[in-house]
Amino acid sequence: MAKLLQVDFPFTGPFGSEMAGALKDLAVSITEEPGFIWKIWTENASEKDAGGIYLFETEEAAQAYLEKHTARLKGLGVEKVNAKLFDVNEDLSKITNGPV
Amino acid sequence: MAKLLQVDFPFTGPFGSEMAGALKDLAVSITEEPGFIWKIWTENASEKDAGGIYLFETEEAAQAYLEKHTARLKGLGVEKVNAKLFDVNEDLSKITNGPV
């Protein structure tokens, strides 16, 4: 069953198109991670927050990615990464058009 | 621009199909909220957590829903609701097949 990974962390930028330019290659590489299905990139410039919502094929794939990504973020100076791993309630998500 | 609303809270259940049976009418009603696009229902029975990832058409619609939903959750005994509102980085999300 697909697993949803919810990640956010304090981030001072860049945001928007500047972030997209800087992280395009990283985005391409993420699509090649084992078990990866999709990622929505999230950002809040006024709250100085960023993160991502991911869907992975399995819990193991999500956990392995999270370890790798957390280490990468720490290397970029991000000290505190908030991460939660969830099951998807597929019956309810189907009613509300959830893209899973 | 679409806004992503990330919500999670401590929850002791029901989960899975039992949750789906209990909350089906609520799910239908959520699809009728102003500016609603989709919701993925999230749950983690072992961590006793649940929540949702939502896409709304505008920040105002997301904020109005969040106020209504927080009050509803408090009525159900949920004391602490974690909520974050994000912009979506559309360029990066497009690369990673993000459904926005």
UniProtKB/TrEMBL annotation, chains A, B:
<dbReference type="Pfam" id="PF08803">
    <property type="entry name" value="ydhR"/>
</dbReference>
<dbReference type="InterPro" id="IPR014910">
    <property type="entry name" value="YdhR"/>
</dbReference>
<keyword id="KW-0560">Oxidoreductase</keyword>
<dbReference type="GO" id="GO:0004497">
    <property type="term" value="F:monooxygenase activity"/>
</dbReference>
<protein>
    <submittedName>
        <fullName>Monooxygenase</fullName>
    </submittedName>
</protein>
<dbReference type="InterPro" id="IPR011008">
    <property type="entry name" value="Dimeric_a/b-barrel"/>
</dbReference>
<keyword id="KW-0503">Monooxygenase</keyword>
